[in-house]
């Protein structure tokens, strides 16, 4: 989920193609079958890989979208999830940053507060993942990596997935963000939380 919420159009299309080659079915079909409700609609929207790649910011549209989000959530009884899906899954990252700024100006608080108030469960986590990755993708993955190792036990599949996929994209940025946020290097965290060849392999990948 964290990878889908933070992926570019190119990465999503590559994931879809690889999934179909491996499993002889579409990623969208399996997402539809394995999830339900609002969360399914969010993942299917993301799976389309239709985020705008126009990186010019339209301030007027940002104000309109911020107002639309406010009207779809905090200013009505019930929540119009389709508006949140449409805007968060299709606007470019720079445009979303401007929308979040306009939302803060209109509502007097960040959009994260609205998401936590209006949604719950997987859909809440998914929408927050999009927002966090838009604001600072390296910090978002640093948090995800930390969460995979924090507490009792290690979420090995999540740890392996994120290390392997981000290793050739932005691992250096993630390592800096991790150290800044947690006061300890990612490598030290991995050394303390894993062992043997598994540890050696992870350390070699992030080096």
Give your account of this protein's structure.
The protein is mainly alpha-helical and 207 residues long. The protein folds into 3 domains: 1-48, Annexin V, domain 1 (Orthogonal Bundle), CATH 1.10.220.10; 59-135, Annexin (Annexin V, domain 1), CATH 1.10.220.10; 137-206, Annexin (Annexin V, domain 1), CATH 1.10.220. The protein is 75% helix and 0% strand. The protein is built from 14 helices and no strands. The chain has helices spanning 2-6, 9-23, 27-34, 37-47, 59-72, 81-90, 93-107, 111-118, 121-135, 137-149, 156-166, 171-182, 186-193, 196-206. Helix 10 (137-149) runs parallel beside helix 13. It is globular, with a radius of gyration of 18 Å. The two termini are 25 Å apart. 28% of the residues are buried. The model has no long low-confidence stretch (mean pLDDT 94). InterPro entries: Annexin (IPR001464), Annexin_repeat (IPR018502), Annexin_repeat_CS (IPR018252), Annexin_sf (IPR037104). Keywords: Annexin, Calcium, Calcium/phospholipid-binding, Repeat. It comes from Homalodisca liturata. This is Annexin. One of its GO terms (molecular function) is phosphatidylserine binding.
């Amino acid at each position: 989920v964290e990878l889908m919420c933070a992926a570019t159009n190119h990465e999503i299309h590559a994931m879809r193609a690889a999934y179909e080659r491996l499993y002889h079915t579409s990623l969208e079909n399996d997402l539809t079958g394995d999830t339900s409700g609002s969360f399914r609609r969010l993942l299917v929207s993301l799976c389309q890989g239709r985020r705008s790649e126009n990186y010019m910011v339209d301030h007027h549209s940002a104000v309109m979208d911020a107002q639309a989000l406010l009207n779809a959530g905090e200013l009505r009884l019930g929540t119009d999830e389709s508006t949140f899906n449409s805007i968060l899954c299709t606007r470019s990252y720079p445009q979303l940053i401007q929308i979040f700024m306009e939302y803060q100006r209109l509502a007097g608080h960040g959009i994260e507060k609205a998401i936590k108030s209006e949604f719950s469960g997987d859909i809440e986590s998914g929408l927050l993942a999009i927002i966090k990755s838009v604001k600072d993708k390296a910090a978002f993955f640093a948090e995800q990596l930390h969460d995979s190792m924090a507490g009792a036990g290690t979420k090995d599949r999540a740890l392996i997935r994120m290390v392997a996929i981000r290793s050739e994209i932005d691992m250096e940025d993630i390592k800096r963000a991790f150290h800044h946020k947690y006061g300890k290097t990612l490598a030290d965290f991995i050394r303390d939380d894993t062992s043997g060849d598994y540890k050696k392999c992870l350390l070699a990948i992030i080096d």
